[in-house]
Specification:
This protein has 127 residues and is of the alpha/beta class. It has helices at residues 21-30, 44-53, 70-80, 96-103, 115-126; strands spanning 12-17, 36-41, 58-62, 64-65, 68-69, 85-90, 107-110. The chain has a domain at 44-56 and 66-86 and 100-111. α1 links the parallel β1 and β2 (36-41). The modification 4-aspartylphosphate is found at residue 62.
């Protein structure tokens, strides 16, 4: 089954940086049952605070957030937390994909995306 996410014995942390509650719920449902610890923040400021406690293995980063753009946050993440993998998620601007990859995002998912696409990205980044 291609939707399976395999992980090591220790749960990998995944942080969703997304201000839309419905999208966070959907991502949680898509990843339900996977061996991952999933957390969620709504702003870049909250994400910075979260990272100071314990950086996650993977970030699902929306572009349009209440306190800035995810694209701008990629540079900070890559500089301060280079081991963290970034999956940029956006539905507004198809050109954001090229910019996100140039700035250091590891993957890009255009909304709407499928469970298979999400799981494939996570698997590729974890292995």
């Amino acid at each position: 089954m291609t939707n399976t996410i395999t992980a090591t014995t220790q749960k990998q942390k995944l942080l969703i940086i997304e201000d839309e509650g419905e999208m966070c719920l959907l991502i949680n449902l898509l990843l339900d049952g996977k061996e991952m610890e999933i957390e969620h923040v709504k702003t870049i400021a909250d994400a910075v605070e979260y990272f100071q406690q314990q950086p996650p293995a993977i970030v699902l980063l929306d572009n349009r957030l209440p306190d800035g753009f995810g694209l701008d946050f990629i540079l900070f993440l890559k500089k301060e937390y280079p081991a963290t993998k970034i999956i940029m998620i956006s539905g507004m601007d198809p050109a954001a994909k090229d910019v996100a990859i140039e700035m250091g995002a590891d993957m890009f998912l255009e909304k709407p995306f499928t469970k298979a696409q999400l799981c494939q990205c996570i698997n590729e980044l974890l292995h």
